[in-house]
Structures are given as C-alpha cells and as structure tokens.
Amino acid sequence: MSGGLHIVIALAIGYLLGSIPFGLIFTRLAGAGDVRAIGSGNIGATNVLRTGKRWAAAATLLCDAGKGALAVYLARHFLGNIPSLVAALAAFLGHIFPVWLRFKGGKGVATFFGITLVLNLVGGVGGLLTWLAAAAVWRISSLSALVAAALTPVYFILLGEWLYAALCLLLAVIIAFTHRENIARLLRGTEPRIGRKSEPAG
Description:
The chain has helices at 3-18, 22-29, 45-49, 54-78, 81-96, 109-119, 121-138, 141-158, 162-178, 180-188. The N and C termini lie far apart (49 Å). The protein is globular, with a radius of gyration of 16 Å. It contains ten helices and no strands. The relative contact order is 0.14. By secondary structure, it is mainly α. The protein has one domain (3-188). α2 (22-29) packs antiparallel against α4 (54-78) and α4 runs antiparallel to α5 (81-96).
C-alpha cells in the first residue's frame, strides 16, 4: 500500500476507535441515565464519577485510555510509525468530537494517557505519575490533567523522542482548550474536587 493510503487508513482507525462514547455507554449500563445531563455534561471518567457509580467511572477511564492505546498500536504494527502518530491524533480528536454525539465528546485526558503509554512507556508513565501526584496534592482532576499534559512533552524531550514530544505538545494545547471553562473556574476558586457528586448539567 502507498504511504497516502496508510495515512487514510490510520485516520479512519483512529477516529472510529476514539469516537466510541464509553462514558455514555457505562453510565447507562449502571442505571445512571445519560451522563450528559449531569455535572459538566461531559462523557469523560471524571463526570461519570459524579454519578456515584465508581465502577462505571473506572471502566470509562480504562476504555477511553485503551482506545487511544489500541489506535496507536494497530497503526504502528500494520502501517508504520508516522501513520501511528496520525492514528493517535485522530483517536484523540474522535474522543473530543464524536460524530455519534453531534461532535460533543470528552476532554481527551484518558485518551491522551493511553496514547502516550504506547508511544513510549517511560514517557507515558511519567505523565500518568504526574497526574496522580497532582491529584493527591490538589484533589482537582482538571488541574491535575493540565499539569500532566503540560509536562509530558518535556518527558519525551528528555527521552530524545522529539517527534512524540511534538505530538504530545499539540495534544496538550488541545487539552488546555477543552478545559477552558475549568481554567476559568480554577481562577475563581470554584472548580469541584474529585469525587464530588454534581447537580444536573446547566
């Protein structure tokens, strides 16, 4: 197959995997209704946790990370390194803009970690540990995500993975954009802490 066809296939694989709305699926299986009707209205694991269904939040976290990881793995194994980066970006954007939900998806954090863990395990673990450390200190998911996303490209640079670092930097910028409302609440001091149940989405 030609390089161009590899790119097209990587885009399709990445987007289709990334657009699977696991948060919506698991909250409905848990009997918690439509996760888009509570809290932030987001389909990610943090908002799923606000339903009080911890297993659904854990399953969402694992599957949202897994779809990013799988997209990179499949593209790298069958198509090559550059297509794997294309698949990574497509999976990430698929999660944020799923066609099935009128392009209103999650914020990309779990998918980001799944992608980075497959790109380079050491760099990915560094980013994940940064999230865990920040969450332990501040107990605020969005702040932890922003700190981890900002530092992960640095870890890849230290590992000499410049191409992966560039991709992670792009994803980190997008994560900052998807968290713009969270950033505003952080500045006001009104951002909710991890595990707090929320009122219906405004």
